[in-house]
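Hi there,

I know you've been waiting on this one. I reran it after we fixed the sequence typo, so this is the corrected version. Both the input and the resulting structure follow.
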Amino acid sequence: MALAAGAAVFLLLRVALHTWRLAWLAFLDLPIALAGGVIATYLAGGTISLGSLVGFFTVLGIAARTGIMMINHFQHLERSEGETFGPSLVLRGARERLSPIMMTALATGLAVIPLAIAGDLPGHEIEHPMAVVIVGGLVTSTFRNLFIVPALYLRWGRGLPVPVRPNGVA
């Protein structure tokens, strides 16, 4: 079942990013986002529960969304704004996506930090492990989206066809 879910995620990434190479870039980069959740879980006592699994899926969804948005923005700059492929495109794209990525991480983090701090109080048996995973995962996910995805796009994004939108605009 996990393999089927992974394959479905990969195919959805392929549809969203228009190339197999960028789908692989985004897909293989997702475990970095999950690493923070694993580390945070270990530091908080190493409990894997249903709540922590929900946290991992949450982090995975946030990381995939922000990664797709970052890569699509690079493509938009090249396609619609005439930016030539290279470091200036990647730096501009990362700088322009900084605010949305930080707002997503901060809004989510601020919502779950009280649950992570509350610890193992009665009634928080599900929420605490989930919050710990989400907070840890947001740290590595944000780092991944601001530094690793742009660097990998710079390495593997060259020479890809710029996708044509349905209205015929390249």
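Quick highlight: The helical segments are 2-17, 20-43, 50-80, 87-118, 127-156.

Best,
R. S.
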